[in-house]
Amino acid sequence: MYVKRMLKVVLFFILVSVAGSCIKREKIPHLVIWHWMVDRQSAFQALAEKYESETGVKVDFKLFFPPDIYSQKVIAAARAGNLPDIFGILGEKRMLASFVKAGHILDLTPSMKEDSDAWGKRFYPQTLRIVSFPPNNIYQVPSGIYGVPIDTTVLQFLYNKSLFREAGLDPQSPPKSFGDLISYAQQTKSKLGIDGFVCGWAESWLLNALATEWAINLMGEEKFLKTLKGDVSYTDEDWIKVFSLFAKLKESGILAPNITTMTNKEAEDAFAKSKAVFSFNGSWAVNVYRQLNPKLEYAFFPLPQVSSSFPIKVWGGAGSSFMVNAHSPYKDKAVKFLKWLTLPEQQKFLIEATNNLPAIKGCEDSLPPLLKSLTESFAILTHPDIWPYNEDSRVIEVMNRGLQQIVMGLKTPLEVAKEIQTTKERLSQR
Amino acid sequence: MKRWSWDRFQNFSFIFPALVIFSIFYIYPFFYTFVLSFQDYDFISTPKFIGFSNFREVLTDREWWSSMYNGAFITLWALTFQNILAFMLALGVDRVIRMNKFYRVVFFMLPILSEIIIGLLMKQLLSSEPLGRDIFNRWITNLGLGFFAQDWLGSQRVRLVTALVHCWKGFGWAFVIFLAGLQNVPQQLYEAARIDGANAWQVFRKITLPLLTPVIALVLVLTILGTMQAFAMILALTGGAGGLTEVPVMRIYNHLRFRLAGLACAEGVILGLILIVVSFGMFFISKKIREKYGVLPS
User: Fold this and answer.
1) Most A-contacting residue of B55, B57, B129, B131 (CB-CB within 10 A), to test interface
2) From CA B34, how far away is CA B262, in angstroms rounded?
3) Residues A335 and A201 in one domain
4) ipTM > 0.95 (yes/no)
5) Would A103 be classed as within a structural domain?
6) Average pLDDT for consecutive 10-residue bins of chain A (430 residues)?
7) Residue A25 within a domain
8) φ/ψ (deg, to 5) at B244
9) Distance from CA of B164 to the nearest CA of A (A)
10) Predicted local distance difference test score (pLDDT) of residue A85
11) What's the rounded Cα separation, in Å, for the pair A64 and B208?
12) Is there a cis peptide before residue B130, judged by omega within 30 degrees of 0?
């Protein structure tokens, strides 16, 4: 009796679900966008409302946070064929390449090129290169533009102007060389008892970015890229010099204690509260510092040079980008929306709301002075996503760990260089 | 026969939903991990079969063995310091002492707290300005031990500090299991021993310890399994500290973040196999001890 009743219940649920799936749902024409940018959600929503009032097309920005979770969601959705109309991809360019090769991303080259390259010309070339694949690229992806950058990121040194003044330094003259950096920080530390340099070096990518900038300044971009290709060893004299810079930072006593266990958020908090005179951070920090301490008096400055033989390059270009789902029924609408989003009016709105650097040209006048100073470095941006060769993530991992150990005083630059080279050789044999 | 089949169908229908859920969320991922460990896979591209390459890479990777060493170092501290502390506290609370219920609650509070919370809390406590509040250094300075104050998370000591924090967080589990074991020891045995004139040490050595051997073996195995797979607290406390506190699961996590799914699965399989061998070894030794002491019929 009991079993019969249960079977009836099961049968009822099966019938209901079958009937439910047979009802033809009306397709509401609206765009769904997935992103992870928690600081921009309200600005995006405001833009969505504006777009709907102008065009009648509803846009739904769905926020997924933290970024790791967002990334997993996008991957799972790609595997299940459930990607939204527009989405962003976090991670290395290898990841973008995998999405393209799997056919998930629409090639935007025709849209960018139409009307005499009207859309493509809006962008700073460096930002567009991040989401493009040139012919014969190492990822074996068909050449094309596969994303729409919505902002630009630049990593630079920062200094606290108030602390400079208190320590008797000229707040208009940030350090120009590596030696200046150390002596200014030591002076501040001895006069004010404040740490010289703070940075989120528990997140090793910041260490890697700084090491890359110094490496390019010291040996030139050509030799740097030859190392990635495998033609120059990491035990080369120039690389030892690069790693030695971190040993010098340690020996000079200017680094904040526990810097290798400090996350970037913690470093931002310390700098915003004037607990250190120098930091190395991205352009997004302007928004962060504004929230943490609106009265903070600071400025960005170019990489303190370690050599005058080669020009400096600035790590950056890779801001946030949106991709169009190649299987979306609304891909034309999605492209139209992204064209609208990257018009100067919308970009200026985003600048005001979120204090990020724009991806398109012509918005410089709307930038606050702090961000405007960063646009000067747009011509010298560099990033792994635009290099013709890329290092294996496991080699980078060994390098980052080695740099952390140098900073902790546990290993010498030579030991670290040997470890990196050994790993590179081991992996290249596979 | 027909009736038997119907009964069997009825019985099976009750466990069927659980079996489906268990198969989808446990059995399938378990075997899929093995499949992936033989593949080159980034979660998006089509997986490529590469034989034992991932296993070869893990076994020849110095960083992997370094993370195993870090895990073993913390495990050794957990096996000794943590478990001895837990055992002594359980012995103390097992006796009829005042406020023993209060102590039970207090000692079991730490394990039920989130690992991330413990990690972040200890980071604040142990780190100097500007990262933390330098609370621990201030305490020891107030106690007249200022010469001992130092950068706890920024030097080679970070591995030991991590091990001690792990022990501090984890001893409550061992405490509860030891206490349950102690309370299962028949009181008549203690009374008989006392009548026979046995002293406290003899009672402990001849009654408590042999009868607790299965419990001790269980605690040791759980400690090894738990500590070798520790991750969240260490991630929050040190983030790896230049590899000094990078434990195997953290390495697997990092490789998953780099989308090296095959390699991460191979590491998971190797770690799993090592833990299975160690666990069976511990149970085997425990059985031998029990046989020797006559606790089990040999």
Assistant:
1) B131
2) 9
3) no
4) no
5) yes
6) 65 64 57 92 95 95 91 92 95 91 96 94 92 93 96 94 95 96 95 93 90 96 96 97 97 92 91 95 91 94 94 88 96 96 94 90 89 89 91 92 93 96 89
7) no
8) -70, -30
9) 17
10) 97
11) 54
12) yes
Do A211 and A297 share a domain, yes or no?
yes
**Could you tell me the maximum CA-CA distance found in chain B, to the nearest angstrom?**
84
pLDDT, tens digit (0-9, with 9 covering 90-100), for B260-273: 999 999 999 999 99
Distance from CA of A253 to the nearest CA of B (A): 13
Neighbours of A81 (CB within 10 A): 9
Query: Which 8-state DSSP code applies to residue A231?
Result: S
Q: How far off is chain B from A364, nearest CA to CA, in Å?
A: 35
The confidence score (pLDDT) of residue A6 equals 65
- Cβ-Cβ contacts under 8 Å, B244 against chain A: 405, 408, 410
What chain A residue is nearest to B43 in terms of C-alpha separation? A75
B4 to chain A nearest CA, in Å?
A: 15
User: Would you state the pLDDT for residue A97?
Assistant: 94
CATH number for the domain spanning A123: value is: 3.40.190.10
| pLDDT tier, B298 (very low <50, low <70, confident <90, very high otherwise) | very low
A79, A257, A426 member nearest B154 (Cβ): A257
Rounded to whole angstroms, the Cα distance separating B139 from B124 reads 13
Give the range of the structural domain holding residue A225, as residue numbers without chain letter.
155-315+391-428
Note the pLDDT of residue B110. Answer: 84
The amino acid that residue B53 corresponds to is: S
Whether domain B61-292 has CATH 3.30.9.10: no
Whether A404 and B44 lie within 8 Å, measured CB to CB: no
Return the pLDDT at B240.
86
Element at A63 (helix H, strand E): strand A58-63
- The pLDDT of residue A25 is 46
Query: Domain check: are A326 and A294 in the same one?
Result: no
Please name the member of A195, A203, A258 whose beta carbon is closest to the beta carbon of B127.
Answer: A258
Contact residues, chain A, for B262 at CB < 8 Å:
none
Q: What is the CA radius of gyration of chain B?
A: 24
CB contact under 8 A, B44 and A95: yes
Choose the closest CB to A258 out of B43, B131, B259: B131
Cβ of A270 and B131 within 8 Å? yes
